[in-house]
Design a protein that fits this description.
This protein is α+β, with helices and mostly antiparallel strands. 20% of the residues lie in helices and 27% in strands. It is built from 1 helix and 6 strands, in the order αββββββ. The strands form 2 sheets. The protein has a 4-stranded antiparallel beta sheet, with no helix packed on it. Strands 5-6 form a two-stranded antiparallel ribbon. The radius of gyration is 24 Å and the shape is elongated. The mean pLDDT is 83.
Length: 139
């Protein structure tokens, strides 16, 4: 292979690698895989009882946030052997503290594995319903 062909091939490979790298960076920007958040605007607080992370949360109009924790999923690391829980947090309180909701009924709490929560508020009587998707034994 002549030196000119080798040079052209090397230039083509370098241009193609630059193109792929640029597309990869743009894709990460689009899906918000990495982004810088200015620290001066954050008012973060450590929340007791949420030490193993929150799987999902939903916020309703009066500032209450419902938080599900404890998701165990095959292939992902699990940081606790405790079953999942659901907490409520008043975001309008100056020092919010999560409170565990007491789940009543025939649910086997030892295998509670919440993955996704949602709230429905019936405007007719102002009743509130919290729905949670449960995956007991990873099903």
């Amino acid at each position: 292979m002549s030196a000119i062909k080798k040079g052209l091939l090397a230039a083509f490979v370098a241009a193609f690698a630059a193109f792929i790298g640029h597309r990869y960076i743009k894709l990460n920007e689009m899906i918000l895989a990495s982004r810088e958040v200015p620290l001066k605007h954050l008012r973060c607080h450590y929340l007791k009882n949420i030490q193993y992370g929150a799987e999902d949360l939903t916020i309703i109009r009066d500032g209450l946030a419902f938080i599900s924790t404890g998701l165990k999923y095959p292939g992902l690391p699990s940081f606790s052997d405790e079953p999942g829980k659901i907490y409520v947090l008043d975001l309008l309180h100056p020092k919010p503290s999560p409170v565990e909701l007491q789940i009543k009924g025939q649910l086997d709490l030892s295998s509670f594995n919440p993955h996704g929560i949602s709230v429905y508020i019936n405007d007719a009587d102002n009743s509130m319903y919290l729905f949670a998707v449960n995956h007991p034994q990873h099903r």
